[in-house]
Amino acid sequence: MKKMRRTAARIGERALPALTIFAFVLAWELWVRARGIAPIYLPAPSAIGVQLYRMTIDGSLPYHLGLTLIRIFAGFALAGLSGILLGLLMGMSHTLARVADAWIAALYPLPKISLIPLLIIWLGTGEAYKIVISAVTAFFPVVISTYAGIRQVDHGLLKTAVDLGANRRQVQTKVVIPAAIPSILAGLQLGMGVTIILVVAAEMIGGSAQGGIGYLLISSSQVMETEKVFASLVVLAVAGAIIIRLQQWADRKIAPWVFQPWAVQVDER
Q1: Which structural domain range is residue 175 located in?
Q2: What is the pLDDT of residue 192?
């Protein structure tokens, strides 16, 4: 009996997000139809669904989404690799940490979107500008989280490894980096979120003929095609949610020990 209750509770918990979304969409549809709101201001979900279908069939939506995803992953890859590398080096060298920390403290609070006009002057409005702005934005959360993870490693673990005969390289690769992985993964998640935001913003500001979801949003709003605007937003939200879910799945594969204690606690309850 207890097992059946647990199963029912888990099913209900998993179905709850979908049910809330369905209820919201249904309320939206009924409210728009009851109030007679013009589609130019707020289209009904059914009209947005029709527009999504049309844009998918004519190929415009897959094309623009594909461009945006390529820019997101390219910028994120650059930021992830460089940010993790610098964070690790900062954790291993006090001199480098002092120098880099001064630059990070000065540049991190700077709104990255304010760099777009300068990057357009330097790089134009092509692919390089969009990838660079996304990489620069994601770089700081990654390097800061990596460095913080290195600094927060338990000194007792380091001392134990040294007492057992580990050399400096073994301490770094077998103790420090594995212990810092949770912070590194958290930084990568933050970096991915801001990368998506800045890529779309870059497409909206400087992507007049380059395509992408940001370009689709701006071009649709300029001709008052509100259904296309909402359709683009829906696709962007769904794509972002899928990317984050895939990233969380990859985190569990990369560092299963980080998530396992929680699963044990839930099972015991």
Answers
A1: 58-261
A2: 92
Residues 29 and 64 in one domain: no
What's the predicted TM-score (pTM) here? 0.83
Which residue do the tokens 């990654």 mark? 142
The residue with tokens 């013009």 is 38
pLDDT in tens, 61-105: 999 999 999 999 999 999 999 999 999 999 888 899 899 988 998
Distance of CA 236 to the CA centre of its chain: 12
Alpha helix ranges (H) inside 36-126:
45-57, 60-92, 94-107, 116-123
Cα distance between residue 21 and residue 47, in whole Å: 17
Establish if 46 belongs to a structural domain: no
Please count the other Cβ atoms lying within 10 Å of the Cβ belonging to residue 259: 12
* Residue of higher predicted confidence among 15 and 39: 39
Q: Specify the residue for token string 């420090």.
A: 176
Q: Identify the pLDDT of residue 264.
A: 43
pLDDT at 263 over 50: no
Number of domains in the chain: 2
DSSP state of 224: T
For the beta carbon of residue 53, count every other beta carbon within 10 angstroms. 12
Helices (H), the chain: 2-35, 45-57, 60-92, 94-107, 116-123, 127-151, 155-163, 168-171, 177-206, 213-222, 226-254, 256-268
CA atoms of 146 and 137, how far apart (whole Å)? 15
Do residues 114 and 204 share a domain?
A: yes
CATH number of the domain residue 199 falls in = 1.10.3720.10
